[in-house]
Amino acid sequence: MSAIYKLKKGKWVLKFYQNILNLSLIILSCVLIFFLFRELFNIVKDAFIGNNDVHDILGRVLVFFLYFGFITMIVDYFKENYHFPIKNLLYIGITATIRFIIVNNEHPIQNLWLSLVVLVLMISYFLPNKRLEV
């Protein structure tokens, strides 16, 4: 009987930590939304000013989509009953690596290795999710 009492007693700690995590993710999503709109403002401003640096504009667009990806990952966290799907983490890794390749394109060998990293991430993204049956 005391084991059941200890189990019930410890559940409030789990709920407390879950609420702290949820609150911090809501605050993080608000901050990311602010940076998302700031990046969108900078992209529109560069379009009207006539910025000719293609790498700068493309880097800003990719950062915009990274913010968007993180916000979607937080939304999926709440939709999936408080866990992060691994496919979202792979998506973030793929887009971040592609952004790094586009922005930092001085070293061709490094870009080749990073392209292989993107290939491995894409293969693991599209692998079927099969559960082991025992």
UniProtKB/TrEMBL annotation:
Biological process per Gene Ontology, one example term: cellular response to phosphate starvation
Subcellular location: Cell inner membrane
Chain ranges passing through the membrane: 20-37, 57-77, 89-105, 111-128
Bilayer topology term: Multi-pass membrane protein
Keywords: Cell membrane, Membrane, Transmembrane, Transmembrane helix
GO cellular component: plasma membrane
Top-level taxonomic group: Bacteria
Pfam families: PsiE
Homology family: Belongs to the PsiE family.
PANTHER family associated with the record: PROTEIN PSIE
Official protein name in the record: Protein PsiE
